[in-house]
Design brief:
There is one protein chain. The protein has 246 residues and is of the alpha/beta class. It contains 9 helices and 10 strands. The protein has a 6-stranded mixed sheet with strand order 6-7-8-3-9-10, with helices on both faces. Strands 2-1-4-5 form a 4-stranded antiparallel sheet. The chain is globular.
Length: 246
């Protein structure tokens, strides 16, 4: 379980990107974190994997406070938490297979035959076995994101954090990626956090959702309940029920 307790991030100059954010994500959940640009979504996810250090509050993962981890324990924790980015984050001069192998290289300094075999299995799992030798520039956006997902799975993560992972994709590719993430969740039990500005994405894949506005939680609950009976004006606006200027 991931538990955020009064998570606060204050940048230089006093800007509060996050203010007392508390939420829990159960093991095996697909949880959406939604809000408009500037709501604090990306800061939140970067605090979970400690690319950003919270100013206050705690990130508790499986009962352990991870906010103060450094060195080898921090590296071990990050291997449990994979990231999938909007911009794919692939290495342009590496093939799809080499990109999927990169976590092995980063972790141990080498890539074994066993690592390569596992990478090929992962590419096959995301439907790209025939593209192992292709470079990112030779792949469509949806294919690049599939490579990124295969790379995220390389270290058998317990958690996957998707930061606007489908924002750069067309509707058909978006649906394929969401279907793939749902399949991974169902088959492996991997917990997935989906950071998005789209209620459509939340409705398609998430079980629970937290709505952010100006760095604060304004509403949270099951997707079924939120869609049926939104309480906060931000949620209603995201659902198109009211105008942003109302």
């Amino acid at each position: 379980m991931i538990s955020l307790q009064n998570l606060t991030k204050v940048y230089e100059g006093g800007e509060h990107a996050l203010s007392n954010v508390s939420l829990k994500v159960a093991d095996g959940d697909i949880c959406g974190i939604i809000g408009i640009s500037g709501a604090g979504k990306s800061t939140l996810v970067r605090c979970i994997n400690l690319l950003e250090r919270p100013s206050f509050g705690r990130v508790i993962v499986d009962g352990q406070d991870v906010t103060e981890l450094t060195g080898a324990p921090l590296r071990a924790y990050r291997r449990r938490v994979a990231m999938i980015f909007q911009g794919f984050g692939l290495l342009a001069q590496k093939t799809a297979l080499e990109n999927v192998c990169f976590p092995f290289l980063a972790g141990t300094g080498r890539v074994t035959a066993e690592d390569r075999a596992k990478a090929r299995e992962l590419l096959d799992r995301v439907g790209l076995a025939s593209k192992a030798g292709s470079y990112p520039a030779q792949l469509s956006g949806g294919q690049q994101q599939r490579v990124a997902i295969a790379r995220a799975l390389a270290c058998d993560p317990e958690y996957i954090l998707c930061d606007e992972a489908t924002s750069a994709l067309d509707p058909a590719s978006t649906q394929q990626i969401l279907d793939l993430l749902r399949q991974i969740n169902e088959e492996t039990g991997t917990t997935i956090l989906v950071i998005t500005h789209s209620m459509d994405v939340v409705e398609r894949i998430c079980k629970n959702v937290t709505v952010l506005m100006r760095g604060r939680v304004v509403e949270q609950g099951s997707v079924e309940r939120i869609f049926a009976n939104p309480q906060d004006e931000t949620t209603k606006a995201l659902l198109g029920r009211v105008s942003w200027n109302a």
